[in-house]
Amino acid sequence: MEKWLIQSIWIAVFGFLKEFRPGDPYIIQYLTNPPMNFTNQEVNQEIFPVSTYTCLGVTIIIFLITDYLYYKPIVVLNALSSFTVQILLIFTRSKTDMMVMEVFYGTMTSCKVAYFTYVYSKVDKKYYKTVSSHMKMACLLGRLFSALLAQTLIDNKILTVYYLNHLTLAGVTVSVFWAFGLPSIKSSIYFHQNFEHTHIKDNTDVNVSKPKTVCQRLWSDFIMAFTNRYVFQWSVWWALGTCIYYQCMAYFQSLWQEIYRNGTDLQVTNNGLVEAICTIISTLGVYLIGIITIPSWWLIGTLTFSQGLLLLIIAQEKLLSHAYVGYIMFGTFYHIMATAANCEVAKNIPADSYALVFGVNTFMSLLLQTCLTVVVNSPIGLMLDIRTQFYVYSGGCLIVGALFTVAALCSTYNTKTKPRIFTTLN
């Protein structure tokens, strides 16, 4: 087996392990029932927002030091943060403890950038597309397997929601050991380059020139990427679409609890099955988008607008089955659009710039999500109830979808009129 493939599989296994979290589909049930006994308001307005604020503050630092530290230490930090999250969830009970837990959860989320860029420093550029696919599929498989396992254990009364967190702890413990065993990096994209990548062409001292060279290279790659109008437009959607997606995903379970509490058609214990179905259909959607040709702007515009309509319906839904279906469709649409965005951006920037663009777009999405959280959830904001929150998220999707649909119309019009103008001039 080729060395690059072994390295890709090695890091992909970590991706599977880090996404093996059987307790996640039931986290709201865990926090709002014995032994935790928090109210929905406490969870939504005081506990959960902490991870969003932490993620925003830590992401920019993580991005800047990931390359300098040769990636692996940040991957290890990801695993250790996940381990700490589970320890606090299982063995602590106070609201302050849960807020500290969310700090580590936000740190864990921030460290994902290292996972998605680590392997780029280990393999040749011609394998980037293949290894990216391996990493994405590994994460999806981890989510799928853990969701199916959780649902099976709950349905057969083998484990309760409380003990699913112990199972998650077992998985993240393995991920810690696996992370320490990852192969070390000897060069990186910006700070520690191989000879063929270096930009220092004279006889100046390397230690003196390197900081300046790194800053120049970062700035040059940033300008090259974001002055490209096409890349900028896709990055705008990436930031907006990802912001709304993660905000909704953080509070969907709270909405399900609200629907269930008022009497509905299903048991809220079906969360694991719904997560598994969403993962399967999203994976199929991501695969299909790679083999069929759909104008990208139309895809983004119509699917984002459709997400807004789905959220509008879900916000006033009384049947849990309908809310579950809406959740599956919403998640699938996002993964399809995110895949399209990743591909379009990657095709129009140098391969070495992908980590930079990914980091910048992720930071902007977190900045927007933090602002949204402050306005919607925090004590200094509106402190909206859960259904009203989803009306707000729906409005955001509808506006973004409408804007990109207009962009699709303009793009189609320009494409059709340019040849006619050219013919007339000739």
TrEMBL record:
It comes from the Eukaryota. Gene3D superfamilies: MFS general substrate transporter like domains. Coiled coil: none annotated. The keyword Membrane applies. GO terms for cellular component: plasma membrane. Belongs to the reduced folate carrier (RFC) transporter (TC 2.A.48) family. PANTHER family: FOLATE TRANSPORTER, IP11787P-RELATED. This is Reduced folate carrier. The lineage of its organism: Eukaryota, Metazoa, Ecdysozoa, Arthropoda, Hexapoda.
